[in-house]
């Protein structure tokens, strides 16, 4: 029998668009002893978490709870529960994760129509609303922030257009939740999915979601009590076509998260501890101060990168505060620089996908990783790594420029 | 803004059929700082974990990795990937979780036929094999250990029958893995799903699975590279009907777990830490000694319960070592006793489902919870609780009987 060593991961500075570093207080919460799933203390933790998810998404929705799986499990749970085979679904795509929404919707049996925007941009005013009028979809699914391109799509107008044409609007806010404003009720988002391992800085493994009564009405038309829990005589169905997944069946999951506590899966105890504590720290910091913090460190990072002579990828008017995409200078092997950052400096940044692979680096300033120490460490390390790769840059300028941004912030406050 | 208190769960003695107590060393592993998902240190952890899952299931299968979700996510991933709409699926049912297999298979579009055994028993020699000959299913799905009834189904004969008729055999070993022998290769199991929160004593949130080349061949006929990762020109499909889930698509997941590391979800870092460390401790204890430990504490528990005058539910010939079902004495309110155990003694035991609800208690002796301290504490507490509920029992006999079992074990070894 092979002997395995005790787990002992290196300490990393993680400046990717996720997963990012986790607050040690959240890590510590996961080391607490577990409770049984129907222990009243545990169901209190479930209820606390629901309250905090509502606050996070700025919603009064009754339903706000996590799906037990990584971020895309939340997306699939919402889409597979809300899309009936044959439904018309519109997906406006402006990066890789728009394609994922198409892939999932097609696997749910939707008739999908798409609208594509060039990578590095988002949809202009009116574009999506016009497509909604043209396509008359039952459901529109769109990404709020595309980590593949670093672009952020405004949603208010799309929310109004969906409501006007009675389409459900599903928003993938995996990358943005906790880092920039998401007002589910005000923006008329019918369902929103957040990610844990990005701006919330909780390990991957849960996906907080919320949905309103319009979405719930669709679920309830498709509801089946689980075989083995229902009365054998009570086979009558609720009319709609059954949801094709049991694990992702929101009509069953909401019974588990309701006072009825109808048994479904065994809730992922330690992950729920992490989510509960992580959300507590997010709300204690305050959403607005947290969003401002993301903007501040983004400004310092961008000033540093520009001072180094680097240029940013993508339309600056729609830049996500928590992801900065940098054009890799000509003649530089981007992977070699990334590897040097990781192995010499202990810093991880990301490459990208598809046509952007090898063309841009993606730097995250998300949640717990979004701090002055990390930004300055990264800029100094990138400065040194580029020099080591023979790139001629004004050495030392990047860190000074970032410090200037931080100083001006203090002056402005002082 | 409401203030939430710091998370501070009570210490519980958890004697349910899962989730159960977690080894503090596993809890501690979850508090380690996280690594990025493509960090070479992290992919080493992924590979270690695959090796250990192979050892756990006693298999040489290439594919052995966790699904990121709770146990039933593993079941659904296997079934949804292996069942094409219209496939003939046979499910022998002898408890609640057999019904779950039917529910999931139906949602995958299978034509399901069932074979039902009375709760408290399993299928006799020849029964399932005969049904396989009659029904000629493409796939047979069966539960190895039914926590709802405490019964364990022998699998060797079913494995042979499936192989002979070229059906795939999928086994739900959620409750048994790590507590009793599962020999995937020897028993000809084509796919097996384990649970973490039971005999492995790792928090819920991951489901280790393994499958062989026969299962893989079916997957590969249905494979699609994810839209957004594949070359746009490369739309050609592989023949079979696409898998209806993206999150649970094993043909994509195995690429993520292969050296290709084709991006799918973001692996659940801290849960993988827990799984890796938990499996390391299981294998360090040794599978055979671990199974023997489960038998030893079961024997002490059963002796204690009998000495108290209680009777067990179910056919003793097929009793699971890690779950003991007890008939609730007449005139006793089972829920009141459970509540007293929890609130006075800090011990959790379980009730059951369906027709057994209110008729039996289910006591787990699983993994880390399966130890002398817990068994003696439970017997003493149950003794006191029954007395408090006016049940006439030979007070003190239970603990003495259990001690006798432990002493005889020591004598036998000495």
TrEMBL record, chains A, B:
<dbReference type="InterPro" id="IPR015424">
    <property type="entry name" value="PyrdxlP-dep_Trfase"/>
</dbReference>
<protein>
    <submittedName>
        <fullName>Alanine--glyoxylate aminotransferase family protein</fullName>
    </submittedName>
</protein>
<dbReference type="GO" id="GO:0008483">
    <property type="term" value="F:transaminase activity"/>
</dbReference>
<dbReference type="InterPro" id="IPR000192">
    <property type="entry name" value="Aminotrans_V_dom"/>
</dbReference>
<keyword id="KW-0808">Transferase</keyword>
<comment type="similarity">
    <text>Belongs to the class-V pyridoxal-phosphate-dependent aminotransferase family.</text>
</comment>
<dbReference type="InterPro" id="IPR024169">
    <property type="entry name" value="SP_NH2Trfase/AEP_transaminase"/>
</dbReference>
<dbReference type="InterPro" id="IPR015422">
    <property type="entry name" value="PyrdxlP-dep_Trfase_small"/>
</dbReference>
<keyword id="KW-0663">Pyridoxal phosphate</keyword>
<feature type="domain" description="Aminotransferase class V">
    <location>
        <begin position="38"/>
        <end position="351"/>
    </location>
</feature>
<dbReference type="InterPro" id="IPR015421">
    <property type="entry name" value="PyrdxlP-dep_Trfase_major"/>
</dbReference>
<dbReference type="InterPro" id="IPR020578">
    <property type="entry name" value="Aminotrans_V_PyrdxlP_BS"/>
</dbReference>
<keyword id="KW-0032">Aminotransferase</keyword>
<dbReference type="Pfam" id="PF00266">
    <property type="entry name" value="Aminotran_5"/>
</dbReference>
């Amino acid at each position: 029998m092979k002997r395995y060593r005790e787990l002992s991961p290196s300490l990393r500075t993680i400046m990717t668009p996720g997963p990012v570093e986790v607050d040690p207080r959240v890590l510590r919460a996961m080391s607490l002893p577990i409770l049984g799933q129907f222990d009243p203390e545990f169901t209190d933790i479930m209820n606390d978490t629901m309250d905090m998810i509502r606050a996070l998404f700025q919603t009064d929705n009754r339903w706000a709870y996590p799906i037990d799986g990584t971020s895309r499990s939340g997306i699939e749970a919402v889409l597979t529960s809300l899309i009936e085979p044959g439904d018309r679904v519109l997906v406006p795509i402006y990066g890789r994760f728009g394609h994922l929404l198409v892939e999932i919707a097609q696997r749910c049996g939707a008739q999908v129509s798409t609208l594509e925007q060039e990578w590095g941009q988002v949809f202009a005013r009116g574009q999506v609303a016009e497509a909604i009028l043209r396509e008359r979809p039952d459901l529109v699914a769109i990404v709020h922030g595309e980590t593949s391109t670093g672009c952020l799509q405004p949603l208010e107008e799309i929310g109004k257009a969906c409501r006007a044409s009675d389409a459900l609007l599903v928003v993938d806010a995996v990358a943005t939740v906790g880092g920039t404003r998401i007002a589910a009720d005000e923006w008329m988002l019918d369902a929103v999915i957040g990610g844990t391992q990005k701006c919330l800085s909780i390990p991957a493994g849960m996906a907080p979601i919320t949905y309103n009564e319009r979405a719930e009405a669709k679920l309830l038309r498709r509801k089946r009590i689980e075989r083995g829990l229902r009365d054998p005589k009570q086979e009558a169905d609720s009319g709609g076509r059954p949801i094709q997944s049991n694990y992702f069946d929101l009509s069953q999951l909401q019974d588990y998260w309701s006072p009825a506590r109808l048994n479904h899966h065994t809730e992922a105890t330690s992950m729920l501890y992490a989510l509960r504590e992580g959300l507590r720290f997010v709300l204690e910091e305050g959403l607005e101060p947290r969003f401002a913090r993301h903007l501040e460190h983004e400004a310092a990072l961008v000033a540093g990168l520009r001072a180094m002579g680097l240029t940013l990828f993508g339309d600056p008017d729609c830049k996500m505060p928590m992801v900065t995409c940098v054009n890799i200078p000509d003649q530089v092997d981007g992977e070699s620089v990334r590897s040097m950052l990781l192995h010499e400096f202990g810093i991880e940044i990301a490459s990208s996908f598809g046509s952007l692979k090898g063309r841009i680096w993606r730097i995250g300033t998300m949640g717990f990783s979004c701090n002055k120490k990390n930004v300055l460490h990264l800029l100094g390390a990138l400065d040194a790594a580029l020099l080591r790769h023979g790139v001629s840059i004004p050495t030392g300028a990047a860190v000074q420029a970032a410090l200037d941004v931080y100083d001006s912030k203090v002056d402005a406050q002082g």
